[in-house]
Amino acid sequence: MTVEPTTEVAEGTERYRALRHELEVGILPLSTSLDGRRFTFQASLHGLEVRVGGFVVVTTEDGGAALGQVLELGLAEHDVAVDGGAVTLRHAAGAGELLAPGRPFHDALLRPATADEVGGWVAARAASGTLLRIGTLALAAPAPCMVDAGGFDRHTFLCGQSGSGKTYALGVLLERLLIETDLRIVVLDPNSDFTRLAAVRDGADPALAERLRAVAGAIAVHTAAPDPARPTDARLRLRLAELTTAARAALLRLDPIRDLEEYAELAAFMASGQPPTTAALEATGRPDALRLAQRARNLGIEAFGLWARGDAGSTLDALADPSVRCLVVDLGSLPTREEQALVAGAVLADLWRRREERDPLLVVVDEAHNVCPAEPEDALTALATEHAIRLAAEGRKFGRYLFVSTQRPQKVHANVTSQCDNLLLMRLNSAADVALVEQRFSFAPAGLLAQAPAFGLGEALVAGKLSPTPQLLRVDPRVSREGGADVAADWLPRVS
Fold first, then answer.
1. d(CA 90, CA 79)
2. β-strand 219-223 against 326-330: which pairing, if any?
3. How much is the pTM?
4. Which of 114, 195, 352, 433 is the most buried (most CB within 10 A)?
5. What is the average pLDDT across 105-118?
6. For 236, which DSSP code?
């Protein structure tokens, strides 16, 4: 049964609501800082303009002003006594950090910063270091988002689910590094997304396009399917002799104890300098060599298209070529998972072998859940994972900097991600993935990480040495052409 409120009750309710509205609208946006670094604040919910990740200006009683960033924002309630009764007020409450330490303050007025004010802060940062523009600030457009190029001397982790713009964003970062720095780059490219990194796309920014063309000749693509239209393409190729003993054993699925005789035969045969072919093995007439040749045939190893055979040199030679600024290793052009794992492991092993050269090098591992997964399923992948873990743990002191990219952070080995000091986070719908990122990258504010499920295409959070002040951004347009593309949706219903 529905009971209609009496006129007196209805009028009392309306007065209560009107009073609460008047009091809530009148709540001043005030902030307090006990240490001149962090601040808390309150603000009215009516016309609320501050956002998590956004920038604010705090004005103190003495006329001083400081720029800060909102890192937490929530709803608060408290009761106030009015005319012998109590009114429950609701307002925004949050916390943030000042971009430059100052003096403590109390009840300082707070307002959203303008794009010009944020742009002034960005310009001041740019004047004091080498910054790369990678986009615009999502909450202060058109102010640019700039990252510290020197921050790439730490390992970097980029993650975002399929359709978030992760590969596109990685392309922007690679372009900017090639254009603005002298850092050498090696890209393990499992989806052939960066094979056109040297080609300028139509409509690209003219100034950036000209600068990319200036370095295009130093971008080499090693692929199993060279394109005659791309003169920098070379055939992706390896030689059995340049692989490590562990890699050759993993390729042939040999265990040094279980397969004692064959393992020893392989070592002796490789040391003999004979051509590493099944025919040469069989020509020895030794029983273990015959078994080894049969094993290779059964596994189809000699039929792999990646062997250099009559071609001079190999892909590993390009790692030491000083004329190559960027080497794209097109794993996606290889037809089998075994070949992809073999090449990835060989490249990582060779980079570690050359570590004493101490030449700064960014090692980009795209779709890293395939190269260094949390749980490797075969010996070749396990070996590649070991090399990635070693580079993550010890490579930085030798100038080997990892840049790991993936759709699923849970599927990348923890000993790789835990060594990353930079984070680039794009849209992640999975609560478990967001929780894992928060756990492993505690330097990124939880309030900003929580925004990840709501990110749009091309939106991201950057934090770490790349950006000591975390920034929410929209990635800039690419200069180069994208190598991969989504399948055309021509199966959709026709619109009449």
1. 9
2. parallel
3. 0.90
4. 195
5. 95
6. -
Q: Which amino acid is at 288?
A: D
Phi, psi of 375 (to 5 degrees): -135, 90
pLDDT digits (tens, 9 = 90+) for 411-461: 999 999 999 999 999 999 999 999 999 999 999 999 999 999 999 999 999
Give the residues across from 131 on adjacent strands: 148
Task: Supply φ then ψ for residue 157, to 5 degrees.
Answer: -120, 125
Cross-strand bridge partners of residue 96: 39, 70
In angstroms, the CA 78 to CA 86 distance is 10
Tokens linked to 132: 């790369």
Question: What CA–CA distance (Å, rounded) separates 95 from 33?
Answer: 10
In total, the chain counts a number of residues equal to 496
Find the helix packing angle between 166-180 and 206-215, rounded to 10°: 70
- The phi, psi pair for 214, rounded to 5°, reads -65, -25
492 pLDDT band, cuts 50/70/90, is: low
Report the alpha-carbon distance of residue 456 to residue 477 in Å, rounded. Answer: 15
The pLDDT of residue 485: 52
Q: Is 225 helix (H, G, I), strand (E, B) or coil?
A: coil
Residue 238 per-residue DSSP state: B
Q: Residue 166 in contact with residue 157, Cβ under 8 Å?
A: no
* Straight-line distance from the first to the last Cα atom of the chain, in angstroms, rounded to the nearest whole number: 52
User: What tokens were used for 316?
Assistant: 């590993």
Check residue 491 and give its pLDDT: 47
The pLDDT of residue 228 is 80
User: At 76, which amino acid appears?
Assistant: A
Q: Give me the sheet containing 233-235, strands edge to edge.
A: 144-148, 131-137, 467-475, 459-464, 422-425, 156-159, 400-406, 361-365, 184-188, 326-330, 219-223, 233-235
| SS3 at position 46 | coil
pLDDT at 18: 84
| Cα torsion angle, 138, 139, 143, 145, sign | negative
SS (H, E, C) 251-293: HCCCCCCCCHHHHHHHHHHHHHCCCCCHHHHHHHCCHHHHHHH
- How far apart CA 139 and CA 122 sit, in angstroms, is 14
* Amino acid letter for position 32: T
SS3 226: coil
What's phi and psi for 151, nearest 5 deg?
A: -70, -15
Beta strands in 138-218 (DSSP E): 144-148, 156-159, 184-188
Q: Is the pLDDT of residue 206 over 60?
A: yes
pLDDT for position 484: 58
CA 435, 440, 443, 449: dihedral to nearest 10 degrees?
-20
Which class for 34: exposed (0-12), middle (13-18), buried (19 or more C-beta within 10 A)?
A: exposed
